[in-house]
Write a structure and sequence with these properties.
Low-confidence stretches: 1-20
Order of helices and strands: HEEHEHHHHHHHEHHHHHEHE
Structural class: alpha/beta
Largest sheet: 6 strands, mixed
Radius of gyration: 20 Å
Oligomer: single chain
Number of strands: 6
Length: 303
């Protein structure tokens, strides 16, 4: 995902914090005895932001269990962590030099130098990234670049998503998840061919400023609690092969939304639930909010 509209989006984000600015929604009706809630999260934001979401603590106290994208216990299981680490590596002992042309390898090194001031000629970096899947590199560089631009805004040891699950766990509430680490890893890293991953890595390196602007636009929109602008930023296109295809969007967003919506009615009927998922999954015709309305629930922003 790469975008470009930083300055205009920043202004619109700041101006739209009002009636339509919501990250937390109440889910009621359709036979529910007590309401459930769903909040949109941002994976790279400080946990202190939670206090900026109106009504979130009351919603957490009013629910009897919490659900995230990933099962809490599965997420922390050593086997799951090992699986993720292995899944992000190239198959059969292959090296980046085996799948990149000399020109592509040098282009990657140029990008690495611009972000990290070093490249794969550095033995330490080569040992870390030299056998990593191209999309794994994109993920790592996106996080590293973000942390360098916002050194005090994100603590990787205290993910924002985990805050809600940790709180429920500490209060003795059941904590569940829609997906396992294995399932999510397959969707994020294994559903894309190696040649397409190479193309997307080159796209990322070739559009670093654009990618950075996209992340900044989404961050500013999220801070303004404006899901419509979050979606607008995510949907911005370059209009070339660097854009995600409808099939890729379906794997990462739409299909997962549909799977979650199949599970949510039974979960909410069992206990009033506090759901936390990435904010990009909430808006749009195929988003979780509209999906819940299509199922007959009343979905209202919490003020």
């Amino acid at each position: 995902m790469t975008k470009k509209l930083l300055s205009l989006l920043l202004l619109s984000c700041l101006c739209t914090l009002g009636a339509n600015a919501q990250l937390l929604y109440r889910i009621s009706g359709n036979g529910l005895e007590r309401p459930s809630y769903i909040v949109g999260s941002h994976h790279l934001i400080s946990v202190t932001f939670v206090d900026s979401i109106p009504g979130v603590h009351e919603a957490m106290d009013a629910t009897a269990q919490a659900y995230g994208e990933l099962s809490f216990d599965n997420m922390l299981n050593p086997d799951s962590i090992a699986y993720l680490q292995t899944a992000m590596m190239l198959p059969d002992g292959k090296h980046l030099k085996d799948i990149l042309t000399a020109e592509q390898y040098e282009k990657l090194n140029e990008g690495l130098r611009s972000i990290l001031t070093t490249d794969l000629n550095n033995p330490m970096l080569e040992a870390q990234m030299g056998r990593m899947l191209p999309l794994g590199i994109v993920t790592q560089l996106t996080i590293i670049n973000y942390m360098m631009k916002h050194p005090s805004a994100f603590d990787p040891t205290k993910p924002f998503d985990r805050y809600f699950l940790d709180d429920a766990k500490q209060k003795g509430k059941p904590v569940g998840g829609f997906e396992t680490v294995a399932y999510q890893t397959e969707a994020l890293f294994k559903s894309t061919t190696l040649s397409r991953q190479v193309e997307l890595l080159m796209c990322y390196i070739g559009h670093l400023d654009w990618s950075e602007n996209m992340n900044e636009a989404i961050l500013k929109a999220y801070r303004a609690q404006d899901l419509a602008t979050v979606k607008k930023a995510m949907d911005e296109k370059i209009n070339d092969s660097c854009d995600s295809t409808p099939e890729e969007d379906a794997i990462i967003i739409d299909n997962r939304n549909a799977n979650w919506l199949k599970k949510m009615p039974a979960i909410m009927s069992d206990k009033p639930t506090f759901f936390v998922v990435g904010a990009g999954h909430l808006p749009g015709n195929k988003g979780v909010l509209q999906g819940l309305r299509n199922l007959g629930y009343t979905v209202e922003g919490v003020k």
